[in-house]
Amino acid sequence: MQKLNNYINGRNCDPLDGNWLDNYNPSNGQVYSLVADSNAADVENAYQAAKKAYPEWSNSTLEHRSQILMCLANLIEKNLDRLAAAEATDNGKPLSLAKTVDIPRASANFRFFAHAITQFSSESHESAGLDTINFTLRQPLGVVGCISPWNLPLYLFTWKIAPAIAAGNCVVAKPSEVTPMTAYLLSELLTEAGLPNGVLNIIQGTGPSAGQAIVQHPKIKAISFTGGTKTGEHIARTAAPMFKKLSLELGGKNPNLIFADCDYDAMLTTTVRSSFANQGQICLCGSRIYVEDSLYEKFKVDFLEKVSKLTVGDPFSNDTNLGALVSRPHLEKVQSFIDRAVEDGASLLFGGKKVTVPGLEKGYYLQPTVMEVTDNSCSIQQEEVFGPVVTLMKFSSEGEALELANQSKYGLSATIWTSDLNRTMRLSKQLEAGIVWVNTWLNRDLRTPFGGVKNSGMGREGGLEALRFFTEPKNICIKY
Ligand code: NDP
After folding, report:
1. Which of the chain's ends, N or C, has fewer CB atoms near its CB within 10 Å?
2. Which of 183, 64, 157, 55 minimizes the C-alpha distance to 114?
3. How confident is the model at residue 171 (pLDDT cuts 50, 70, 90)?
4. Sheet holding 20-25: strands in order across?
5. Residue 188, pLDDT score
6. Considering only CA atoms, which of 337, 356, 357 is closest in space to residue 348?
7. Which residue's CA lies nearest to atom 23 of ligand 1?
8. pLDDT (tens digit, 9 = 90+) per residue, 251-270?
9. Whose alpha carbon is nearest atom 9 of ligand 1?
10. Measured in angstroms, how far is the CA atom of residue 135 from the centroid of ligand 1?
C-alpha cells in the first residue's frame, strides 16, 4: 500500500517512530494508503532543516523567490488532472470541483504571491524639522508553522505556504491527516521547481501529535492556522504565552439574507451552490438562509425543487453534484446535528438520510438537507454543522434580518441578495462578518483581506495582509 511520508530537508522520509495511520477513500470507505503518524521528534527534524535553510532563503532576491513560486504554479497547472483526481479520491469531493476550483486555486495561490512579493513595500516618514527619517523594514519572521484543514486540502495548504515562503520564511507545514494526499504529491513538485532544501518541510500526522508539536515548538515564531474554532482556541492558549504571532481562520455559520427585490433567478441558482458546494464543507457556505416573508413560500417551493434534483454520487461521475462527506465520524456528526434539530422542533423539508450509491455502498454519502426553523437560538441555527445542511427562516423587516444574522457567535461571511443600493450599504456596514458578498457568493479576488470576526478567528489572510503577517515590521530612525 502507498505510504505518504514526510518531506524534510528536500527528501521524503518515514516517521521516526515507524507509525502509520490508515488513509480512507470516503467514496467507498476503503483504506487506500497509509499516512505517517509523526510526532515531536519529526517536527524537530523539520524545524532544524528549516532553520538551516533560513539564512540563505531569507537573503535571496525577490526575483529568485518569485521565479520559484511561479514555477510551482506552472507545475501544479501541468499536473492538474493528476492532482484533481488525487483530491477527489482523498476528500470525496466531485472531480469536477477539484478540477475547476481546488487545484486551479492552488496554482493561483503560488502565482499570486509570486507577483505580490515583487510589489510589497513599506512606509517611510520624514519627520519635518527634526532632520530625521523613519522607515519600516519588513523582515521575515524565521521558521513559521502552517496548519490546514481537510475541506479544501491543497487550496488552503498553499494559501498559507505561498505567502510564508514568498516573504522569506522557512516553513514547517501540516495538512490534515484526513486528507494528506495532495500535500504529499506537492513535495515532488517542490523538488522539481528547485525550492532549496529545508525551505518547506511537510509533516504528516494528527493534530494532537504533529500539529501540537508545531504549535508548542519554542522556536517556531508564528502559526497560521485554518480549522475549527475549538482547535483555534486551543492553539491560541498554547501559543499565546510564547508570544507567537497567530493568524486563526476558524469556523462560520454564515447568514444568507434574501430580500424580495433581488434578482430572483441569479439568487436561486447561487443559493443552491452556496448551500451545498463541496457537500456544504466550505467555511463560507451560507448555512442560515433568511428570506423576506413576502418571498418566503415561493422561494421554499423553488429551492426545494432545485435541491431535489441534485445528484449525490461517485465523485468521479460527471453527473455528481454532491460527492461523499470526508469521513465516517464526520458523517455521523452531521447526522447527529440533523437528529438534534428535529428534536428541537425544526421541520425537515428535504433530505436528512444517508445515500447508498450502487457499487460504493460503504461510502459516506448524505442527501442535501433543508430544514425550516422558527427559533434562531436553536442549536442548528447556532452551531457549525459543516455539511450539506441548511435552514430556512423568514423575516419581516430589514432590521429583523440584521438582528437574526448577527445573533451568532460566528462572524466569517454574510451574503445579501437585494437590488437596493442603500440597503446594501446599510447592511454591509452593520453585519458582523469579515466578508460580505452582495448578489454573489465565493467571488474571490486574492488581493482582498480574508478572515472573520468574533469566534471565526483573528487576523487576515490574502494579498498584502498575508505578507504583513509573515513579516515583522521594524522602525528604523535615521538622524541626518
Ligand atoms: P480541525 O480544527 O479539526 O483541524 C484543522 C487542522 O488542525 C488539521 O490539520 C488538524 O489535524 C489540526 N489540529 C487538530 N488539533 C490540533 C492541535 N491540538 N494542534 C495543532 N493542530 C491541530 O478542523 P477540520 O480539519 O475539521 O476543518 C473544519 C473546520 O475548519 C471548520 O470549523 C471550518 O469552518 C474551518 N475552516 C475555516 C476556514 C476559514 O478560512 N475560516 C476555511 C476552511 C475551514 P488533523 O486533522 O490531522 O487532526
Report:
1. C
2. 64
3. very high
4. 2-4, 30-36, 20-25
5. 93
6. 337
7. 227
8. 999 999 999 999 999 999 99
9. 176
10. 38
